[in-house]
Amino acid sequence: MTNADTKQRGFSGVETVLVVVIVGIVGFVAWYVYHAKNTTDKTLSTSSTSTSPPTSTTKTGTSPGSKDNQSLQTDLNSVNSSNSQASTDLNGSNSSLGDQSTFTSVPN
After folding, report:
1. How far apart are CA 41 and CA 44, in angstroms?
2. Rounded to a whole number, what is the largest CA-CA distance in the chain?
3. Contact 57, 64 (CB under 8 A)
4. Nearest-10 Cα torsion for 10, 14, 15, 21
5. Residue 91 and residue 82: Cα distance in Å, rounded?
6. Quick one: pLDDT at residue 76?
7. Centroid of chain to Cα 15
8. 64 near 53, Cβ under 8 Å?
9. Do 50 and 42 contact (CB within 8 A), yes or no?
10. Comparing C-alpha atoms, which of 56, 85, 81 is closest to residue 68?
11. pTM tops 0.70
12. pLDDT, position 104
């Protein structure tokens, strides 16, 4: 009987269960990523179709997007002024860094 015991080959039950669990985890992660991507794609496609601009014309004969262009121009001007203010603040901060009176000396 000892001769038959040494010639046995194959996976043990623990190894088989371990392989099945690992394959199951990899499969679940793949399904989760696929499901999340499809959900995100559906959400983005729904939001992009619901935010399309109106296509009606105004009574003054202007193009339908003229009001949108005006609001975009206003937003752009406010961003430019914010950027200018931030630049001014940054320049003020940089000049105060060069002021030696704000630094304290440490005795040796």
Report:
1. 5
2. 102
3. yes
4. 140
5. 14
6. 82
7. 40
8. yes
9. no
10. 56
11. no
12. 61
Copy the structure tokens of residue 103. Answer: 């630094």
Indicate the length of the chain as a whole number: 108
**pLDDT tens digits, 6-51:** 777 888 989 999 999 999 999 999 999 999 999 998 888 887 776 5
State both tokens at 40: 């995100």
Nearest-angstrom CA–CA distance, 5 and 78:
84
Instruction: Write the DSSP symbol of residue 101.
Output: G
For the stretch 22-34, pLDDT in tens is: 999 999 999 999 9
Q: Is 22 exposed, middle or buried (0-12, 13-18, 19+ CB in 10 A)?
A: exposed
DSSP label of 50 = H
Quote the pLDDT of residue 106.
Answer: 63
DSSP state string for 87-102: HHHHHHHHHHHT-GGG
Using the predicted structure, report yes or no on whether residue 57 has a pLDDT greater than 90. no
* Residue keyed to tokens 């000049």: 95
- 62 token code pair: 């202007």
56 near 64, Cβ under 8 Å?
Answer: yes
